[in-house]
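Readers of this paper often ask what the protein records in our data store actually look like. Below, we set out a record of this kind in full and without editing:
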Amino acid sequence: MKRAIDKTNEPALVGIVTAILLIGLIVIVISIVQIVYVPIIMEQREAEHMDRVAEQFGFLTSIINNQAADERKGIPIASFITLGSKELPLLVSSKAYGTLEVLENSFTIAIQNESETKTFLIGEIVYSSANAYYLDQSYVYEAGAMIVSQSQGNKMMARPSFFADYNKTSNIVNISFDVINISGVGQKTIASGFGTYGIQTQFNDVSTNIIFNDVRNITIGSQFLNSWFVFISSSLKGIGLNPESSPPHFTLTDTGQFVKLEFQSNLTVNINFKIINILVQIGPGWIQ
């Protein structure tokens, strides 16, 4: 005898199969979104955050340079840096973090003339990203310049206060270089995370204002030598000095540890060198 087929459970079976197929489809869609689209979305968000930090750091640079030019004490000014970005809701993603800190004595400049060599240590402000999807970047305020750095290299986005003039008749080069030195206040010199942190800056004093006559060479030590090499070369070429003349007006060397600028012996080079000290505090509170 043939077994009788009970058709009363067919709708239930169809419903179960349909639910399984829908769940499978949802899982596939979520997996595609998670694997393909989440990295793209997060990379775009982190890229936009890097653009925002560039704007904020540029604003910070302009504030410090204006304070250095005005030389007015007792007027702290606050600006803000967004350190990172949050993850996407509901989906699996990672936050982007950042660090903002004051590094003292991390930049060096040495000036040598016929009689002496003087070396100066300069502090700087550094923002470093810890992105999960986008290329990491650092923004640096160094000696009055704003520099952006990536794994491929670094570039100067804002120039320091450096002015040069060349008199071809007398072979005299006059240079004015105002260097901004950053000093941290108390223990408030670093912040890490993904929130927005305030950074307050204030003019303190002018610690050095010297005229160096008959300068023979200048040596700069920095983590961003390419930026300084390109800047110095373009600045001197812009006033008519030629490193390819015979003999060359100057030679510029990047040793990997420092950039060394040497002037031709028949040039008379005078440098008006000034160090302007700016106090910096990261986080809440006011500079005292």
